[in-house]
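Q: Please design a sequence for this.
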């Protein structure tokens, strides 16, 4: 129970720090399986409710409550919920369930999430303020209601590591047995129908924007993924490929649009370094996105309406995963491109278990990281342009596994500002 309490606190912090002004995309994988000596997967079963408190510039001082159930109704399934209230008036609630099956032999995993928030006195980057040539002073300070309701339906293909058992997709560690999807790793197809909205209130007039002016979307996100990594928490070998296509069919008060995103990561283990480091890993991620329907238009009541998403539903750079010295949603346009490279080492010296506070936790390893990010956005999909005049971030991080959760604390510097972030999970 003590371990899951600490884990719930870490997951709660993840939701809140990652929310910023956007809901976290994938949350935290709570109930991963571990292989026993006989080759069978085992699952943790526990529950906890824990209070928490933290401070950020946007939210101020906040207090909240989080709860987690591992093994919720089914051994591999989990439930998580959190809520907070800040002294500036911001509040947030988040509930999520993952990895439910309709039968023991099903290859489908189902889940759902509900996210609602009211952000007060928060900086948003809208219109020209989100362009590649904008400055931080162009931010728009406003109040806004945020909401997202989403379903998950993931099919695990009978390939690679999941040929016999689809729940191998939830294993914490897996051996690499090849370099193609039919030999190794987990290949899956996931459908995520969702509703998302943002409504500004008690705020000055919104700046002009080239994005759609609707305040809601009803869309389907389709994800084709090949995960050929040797570890969920600390990959040192393999690759991860993710193609995402998002479509909104439109309605009477909004235009249809579609967007694609491609994320590709590679990891290379370059071995230990004498008595200093037990492990050295080079990690690289490339990300690119585009809205092909951007310039398609039609005339409605004498006005030209373009097939574009609203700003809150677009792909963007900045935040906890790409261009980490910039705030979430700092840059956005029709197209985006980013690169991230990290040098990750695991020191042979690991004193954390003997330090005050840390000695309350199970901390099997820690990791030192140097990283750099490059990225930019543009109003057309042109790889030559996207690779010019790129914004940058660089920094360092300390990451450690605490009660089965990877916690990362990192400092990033860039052209506009520096940023200190605390989050869980590896950035890629």
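A: Design:
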């Amino acid at each position: 129970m003590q371990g899951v309490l600490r884990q719930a606190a870490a997951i709660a912090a993840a939701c809140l720090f990652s929310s910023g002004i956007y809901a976290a995309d994938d949350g935290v994988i709570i109930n991963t399986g571990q292989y026993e000596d006989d080759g069978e997967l085992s699952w943790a079963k526990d529950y906890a409710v824990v209070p928490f408190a933290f401070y950020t510039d946007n939210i101020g001082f906040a207090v909240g409550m989080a709860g987690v159930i591992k093994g919720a109704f089914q051994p591999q399934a989990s439930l998580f919920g959190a809520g907070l209230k800040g002294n500036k008036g911001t509040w947030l609630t988040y509930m999520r369930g993952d990895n439910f099956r309709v039968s023991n032999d099903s290859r489908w995993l189902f889940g759902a999430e509900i996210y609602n928030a009211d952000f007060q006195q928060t900086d948003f980057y809208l219109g020209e303020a989100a362009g590649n040539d904008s400055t931080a002073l162009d931010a728009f300070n406003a109040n806004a209601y945020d909401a997202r309701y989403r379903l998950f339906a993931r099919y695990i293909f009978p390939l690679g590591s999941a040929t016999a058992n689809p729940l191998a997709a939830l294993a914490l560690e897996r051996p690499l047995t090849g370099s193609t999807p039919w030999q190794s790793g987990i290949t899956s197809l996931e459908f995520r129908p969702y509703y998302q909205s943002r409504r500004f209130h008690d705020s000055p007039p919104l700046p002009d924007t080239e994005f759609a002016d609707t305040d809601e979307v009803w869309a389907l996100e389709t994800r084709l993924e090949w995960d050929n990594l040797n570890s969920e928490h600390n990959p040192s070998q393999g690759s991860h490929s993710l193609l995402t296509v998002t479509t909104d069919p439109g309605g009477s008060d909004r235009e249809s649009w579609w967007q694609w995103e491609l994320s590709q990561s590679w990891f290379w283990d370059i071995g230990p370094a004498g008595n200093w480091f037990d492990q050295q890993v080079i990690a690289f991620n490339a990300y690119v996105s585009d809205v092909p329907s951007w310039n398609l238009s039609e005339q409605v009541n004498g006005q030209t309406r373009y097939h574009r998403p609203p700003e809150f539903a677009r792909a963007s750079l900045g935040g906890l995963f790409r261009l980490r010295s910039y705030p979430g949603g700092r840059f956005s346009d029709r197209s985006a491109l980013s690169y991230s490279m990290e040098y990750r080492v695991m020191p042979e010296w690991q004193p954390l278990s003997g330090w005050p506070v840390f000695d309350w936790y199970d901390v099997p390893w820690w990791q030192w990281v140097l990283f750099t990010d490059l990225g930019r956005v543009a109003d057309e999909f042109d790889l030559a342009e996207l690779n010019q005049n790129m914004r940058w971030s660089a920094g360092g991080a300390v990451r450690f596994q605490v009660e089965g959760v990877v916690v990362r604390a990192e400092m990033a510097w860039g052209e506009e500002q520096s940023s200190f972030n605390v989050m869980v999970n590896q950035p890629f």
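Q: Thanks. Anything notable?
A: Helices lie at 2-19, 383-386. The chain has two helices and 22 strands.
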